[in-house]
Amino acid sequence: MPHISATAALQISVLFALPAQYFISQWYRTNSAKHIQVTERITASWNISTRSYLSPDVWADPLKLWISKTRICLYVELLILHFRNWYYGENKTKSGHNEAKPHSYFAESTHVQSPKPEYIKFRVGQVIIHRRFGYSGVIVGWDVKANTPEEQLQPRYSPVELDLKDTPHYRILINKANGSGKSTAYVPEEEIKVIMGLEVYHPDMETYFTGYDGSKYIMQPGLKKLYPHD
Question: For the chain, what are the domain ranges?
Answer without folding.
Answer: 40-88, 126-226
